[in-house]
Amino acid sequence: MSRVDGRNRAVSPVIGVVILVGIVAILAATVGVFALGFNEQQPTQAPQVAIVADYNERTTGNGEYLNLSFKSGDTVYRDNLTVVVSGAKSSGGSDVTLDSDPIQAQASTRITSGTEITIHRGQFSGIPSGEQLDLRDATLRLVWDPVSEPGSETYVIYRWPDPSRRN
């Protein structure tokens, strides 16, 4: 005959409680992942591009100009890029504003190695007649926006001049 005491019968309820707690913990973790949004996509990675800048300080008919040459790297779509110039002036010292985006005007739909963009006087407003474009203290940034949705992150994929080389 088997003995009926508390020792033999208590094992089954303890194992049942442990299994039940484990199932509840797994369910809670699964619901938490979906409720807190951990299943959302990771942010889009900015394209990697190698760009060479050729800055010419001579004051010809258009004054100073800056050529950007895409040498290698990822293909970038023109509609995702914007040129931002700050600190540009006229040769007389007045602030000037970039009116047209050189990327949109000069690049094909797909920007790959070999693409060249020129930033010059004709793209700026506020330059009085007889004065030239002065880019000595200007800063240029190429800003990449992956999508046209509100709240999407943008990335600066190129800066001129390189902040570490600025006087």
Automatic annotation (TrEMBL):
<dbReference type="InterPro" id="IPR012859">
    <property type="entry name" value="Pilin_N_archaeal"/>
</dbReference>
<keyword id="KW-0812">Transmembrane</keyword>
<protein>
    <recommendedName>
        <fullName>Archaeal Type IV pilin N-terminal domain-containing protein</fullName>
    </recommendedName>
</protein>
<dbReference type="InterPro" id="IPR013373">
    <property type="entry name" value="Flagellin/pilin_N_arc"/>
</dbReference>
<keyword id="KW-1133">Transmembrane helix</keyword>
<dbReference type="Pfam" id="PF07790">
    <property type="entry name" value="Pilin_N"/>
</dbReference>
<feature type="domain" description="Archaeal Type IV pilin N-terminal">
    <location>
        <begin position="9"/>
        <end position="89"/>
    </location>
</feature>
<keyword id="KW-0472">Membrane</keyword>
<feature type="transmembrane region" description="Helical">
    <location>
        <begin position="12"/>
        <end position="38"/>
    </location>
</feature>
